Amino acid sequence: MKATCWIAPNKVAVKKVPDPQILNPRDAIVRITSTAICGSDLHLLQGYIPAMKKGDVLGHEFMGEIVELGPGVRNGLSVGDRVVVAFPIACGNCASCQAGLYSICENSNPNAGIAETFLGHSPAGIFGYSHLLGGYAGGQSQYARVPYADVGTIKIEDDLPDEKALFLSDVLPTGYMAAEMCDIKRGDTIAIWGAGSVGQFAAASARLLGAERVIVIDRFPYRLRIAQENTGAEIINYEQTDVLDALREMTGGRGPDACIDAVGLEGHHASAALHAYDKAKQATKTETDRPHALREAVLSCHNGGTISVIGAYSGFIDKFPMGSFMNRSLTMRAGQAHVQRYMRPLLERIRKGEIDPSFIITHTMPLAEAPHAYDIFKNKQDDCLKVVLTP
Amino acid sequence: MGVRSVTDSLGIERASEDCGPQGLARFLGWVSLGLGVATLARREQVSRMSGVDDSPTARRVLAVTGVRELGHAAALLIPRRAGWGAWTRVAGDVLDLAAAGQAMMGRGGERRRRLTYTTWALAGITAVDLYSAVRVTRRRPGRNANRVHGSVTINRSAADAYRFWHDFENLPRFMSHLQSVQTTGDRRSRWTAKAPAGRSVTWHAEIVDDRPGELITWRSTGGARVPNSGSVRFVPSTGGRGTEVRVEIGYRVPGGMFGARVAKLFGEDPQQQVSDDLRRFKQMIETGEITRSDGSPDGISIQQQLKQRPAQPLATRRSGR
User: Fold this and answer.
1) Hey, are the CB atoms on B311 and A112 less than 8 Å from each other?
2) Less crowded by CB within 10 Å, the N or C end of chain B?
3) Average pLDDT value over all residues in chain A
4) Are residues A316 and A367 in the same domain?
């Protein structure tokens, strides 16, 4: 089959690799019909996540048709079913899965030992997301092996088109969980750093969950425009406006009730000097992640408010404003999305027309053009927000 | 002598330090302190007693010796455990003996007699120091390498975990170095394990203690090449957090400590093996299968984690166990 492989930092290629096979009783093989490139794939592309190997198949947002099933798959799945696959791999049996915390499944990372040396304890395995998180082949390919298929898939029984269902795999539940972690109350103002796919869905979800005002912060006018038009958000372009001043101004001096960091480890800052500082720290390995958005989120948040961290971080950050965080009684919540627990309720919302996730798609192209897709997505060319690849 | 054991709050026996050699080493540390202070404060008397009061060189050597004794005292008394510090005293003794021999050569009469006494006294002290140094530094690494333990929390009852483990024929499903275990009698079984260079090794084992839902202990019987014993305890975790499974294994590698080191070079690290096996036990009993990925197609093992294949499907056909 053809698959998008990581070759070296900033280099991917579509290669011929062996077809996947059933390795365990609860596995399924899925023939992929739609697959997307995630913002977090760019962290892998650029080499910010450790433990990548030449030839790793990328991709963790995919859906398709079941073509083969292991003998142990329960839940009434059968060959021919159309399914969306959740990006965290989760067994459904361990204490974490049973508490609904699927992205910290205790059994799905066969390289838990590596993860423990970096992270203390291991989170779940993730498709196509480094050997630190399992060494699983991803889904930017024609076929994929899905372990624990009875837990990690949701069947799409009607004729809901791929572009409306696909994002149940990651970015829609991820954005939704970011908003949910804000514990939104009537009248709340929510500020969101990052107008990528997750930021867009966080804004839409904050509205669904009853936020009065949503403010989205980014530097690309086209992304801010998409947020404004599709989620009713107010916008701040941080290259033109000082974010802390603007948020204070917009909220009568209080600051947003909750702040979502949907940027993560590759943040930018309008001040060239500040940006250079973190670039230099990253280059000299004295920090792994550039936490510009997180610092601003903490500093601007309302006293007693919540910081919801959904943007991906990999290791260590510098100059975290701990004094502000502690003295002002802030709360921080974080996590990779526990996708399995959101897929069904969000599918219901899509069916009812409460949200149409397809608004984020700016490009659709064949799998063979994956390297070009990575290029325009990374360099924000051609107003690229989300690329869907069709194998 | 050697290993004593204590029982921790969970009822698990653990090896503890034997205090005897430590006490002796510490006593010798105090002796060094006394000797050092005495030599420096009463250099004249000490030099007369040992028969070297006739030369300024000897008195300078004595001063240096006094300072050195203070060094031994520091090495033995300051660390929480006296370890290699005990050997500094042995080294000092060798220097003293050499100095005494040197001094004896040019002297006769009363001085020579006193020097002879000094030398005999030094020889006695050397013997005690040597004994102490060997005792405090022996066994420590060797004992750790021969006793490994690990624990894991599983989302199952103690009774379930006990039942799965008690059927010893299940063990090879999660203990990667075992090829097979056959039950040969009520409490007896026959174990076959992989050995280096593609060989295998077989031994018989018997259950020593068996408390349903709580504990199983076993040991190898008659001429096993690697005599071993083990225990597994199933302890209900607090507040319904499943069961803590705690394993302790003791074994004697042929070749002792050296053999254990060599085995480690070939990637046989029993401590790592126990923790990998416990992870696989958790996967097996919770999910019914061993987690496999393209990078780690054989499931959790430290060797595989270090030598990952790329995360792309296997070229050869294989089926799940």
Assistant:
1) no
2) N
3) 96
4) no
